[in-house]
Amino acid sequence: MMWPTDNPWPAFAVCLLASVALFMFWSQQRQLKWILGAVTCLLLAGASLAIDAMVITPREQVAQNIYAMTQAFQKRDLDKTLSYISKSSWDVQLLAAEGYNLVKVHDDMRVTDVQVEMIAKDQRARSRFRVNATLDNPVGTSRVSTMWEAKWQNEPEGWKMIEIVALDPITGEPQGFLEAHRDRVRRLYPK
Predict the structure, then answer these.
(1) 6-15 in b/e burial notation, b at 16+ Cβ within 10 A?
(2) DSSP codes, 36-67
(3) What is the pLDDT of residue 52?
(4) In angstroms, rounded to a whole number, what is the distance separating the alpha carbons of residues 125 and 104?
């Protein structure tokens, strides 16, 4: 479901066009009702942008969580990183902790191409995003381009990640390296 506040520009454009049309009527007839209508439409156009800035839709909340979680991981704040993952998804929490122990992300990290799709009557979401950065890892330092697909669930504390899959950044197909780590942490730390 798309919220009206997901995109304020159609309402803004309609109000702006109506204001121009009413101003043209006023310029021809010089009646107060036309200029009042034009001013009202301008105010409504501004209100549509203001409402968009104030209302945060579920889709925007998930996107904000993606940015905040990746920044927390980059800043090496494991507790904050884990706060974005559902407590019921212990394997995802273990993967994040293992990643925290294996790599250090440099300051050149960029999160791009964030896409969020709402599913299950807006109680779940599927997101795809790219993260590009220079990493220090046990093998050395390298520049990496990654793509991820995460599933999110609306919980009482907010939107929490419940699944993560590493994707090939070119084809979008799942990559196996994360699943190998997931299997390993499940064996090392059985629930």
Answers:
(1) eebeebbeeb
(2) HHHHHHHHHHHHHHHHHHH---HHHHHHHHHH
(3) 82
(4) 28
d(CA 123, CA 121): 6
Closest C-alpha among 175, 153, 177, 154 to residue 95: 177
Q: CB-side exposure of 164: number of CA atoms within 13 Å?
A: 27
| Cα–Cα nearest to 69, from 49, 88, 89, 84 | 84
**1, pLDDT greater than 80:** no
Q: What is the DSSP string of 146-165?
A: EEEEEEEEEETTEEEEEEEE
Q: Which residues pair with 5 in a beta bridge?
A: none
Contact present, 150 and 174 (Cβ < 8 Å): no
- Which pair of tokens denotes residue 89? 């998804």
pLDDT above 80 for 26: yes
Residues in the chain: 191
Predicted pLDDT of residue 158 = 95
